[in-house]
Amino acid sequence: MKTLKQKIANYATQDLGLDDCRFTSADTSQFMEIYDLWLKAGRHGEMDYLLKHQDLKEHPEKLLSGVRSAIVVMKNYKSTHERRLAGNFKIARYAVGADYHAILAEKLNALADVLKKESPQAQCYCGVDSRPIPERSLGIQAGVGFLGKNTMLIKPGMGSYFYLGVVLTTVDFEPDAPLRWDCGSCRLCIDACPTQALLGDFQMDAAKCISYQTIEQKEPMSETQIRQAQGWIYGCDICQEVCPYNHDRIPLTNWSEFLPEAGVGFKFFEKAPDDLKEQDIPKTSPMHRSRRRIIPNFQLARRIESAKMKH
What is this structure's pTM? Predict the structure, then answer.
């Protein structure tokens, strides 16, 4: 007879189509000291919401009273066989399809409903990275992947192009073991980052990160930042593109929602008019929340590229 843990894992991977489902304690205190020091050092840039979320991440019982475990799921979003994206105006792979927040939330709620059906006393709290859950730390604890030098969670055989989702629950599940794996002596991601955002100690100076500058930075990017960004208009995959774990044998996602055809696609900015407006960015795209920042950055990048072509 299957255990409750086996039933939940099977439902997640077989019925919902997720690529992995693992279990861990909701306590991530082993990571919180490092996280606290990172925040105190100001390496979070202008992401002040991380300070507001800090207490909730450290004390998940404030999100869900009586919480004992975390169910961590992942889904491959690899959407192109192109190892390094070409083009003058690039979009990170995770953002070319439909908005993953809503899609994963639906799957997580379905998983929680099955858990509550099997265990009527169970309480759950579901979320992805838009909620104050330390999903990456939980993913490491659960053995979904290991922390790479590019600060991404890496799963051998799957790479790092995947989303994480978490169901916090009052059910006490036996935890899975973390992976005993690392990057070894490889530092390709550190050397490839054009802004030196990766610090070499599994941490990042967010303010130097191209993804941060294109998505989170409150002021429009400077001309220097645009030039350093190497064509990235929304997000950046450079540190993932050079990672040996993101090899060509990894298949594309089997969820059509995450493919370019389901969203703005890779050529959105290549085809965009010079007078691109905020309302031209679909609400169903992950880019929608940063639309006010995107427009001036795109316009400056277009002007710089036009000047290059004239010379």
Answer: 0.95
Residue 203, amino acid: Q
Angle at 59 between CA 70 and CA 174, to 5 degrees: 25
Report d(CA 233, CA 213) in Å as an integer: 9
Q: Tokens 């085809």 — which residue?
A: 271
Q: What is the pLDDT of residues 114-168, one digit of tens each?
A: 999 999 999 999 999 999 999 999 999 999 999 999 999 999 999 999 999 999 9
Whether 191 is catalytic:
no
Non-local CB neighbours of 24 within 8 Å, separated by 6+ positions: 69, 70, 72, 138, 141, 142, 143, 175, 176
Give the list of residues 6+ apart from residue 47 with CB closer than 8 angstroms, or none. Answer: 206, 212, 216
Backbone angles phi, psi at 171, to 5 degrees: -75, 135
CB within 8 Å of 160: residues ≥ 6 apart: 145, 148, 150, 152, 153, 154, 240, 243, 245, 246
Q: How far is CA 240 from CA 111, 153, 154, 245, 287, in A?
A: 29, 10, 10, 9, 19
Residue 269: Cβ within 10 Å count: 22
Cα–Cα distances (Å) from 103 to 137, 155, 212, 282, 287, in that order, read 22, 21, 23, 16, 15
For the chain, the structural domain boundaries read: 4-79+98-169, 188-310
Catalytic choice (27, 99, 129, 201): 129
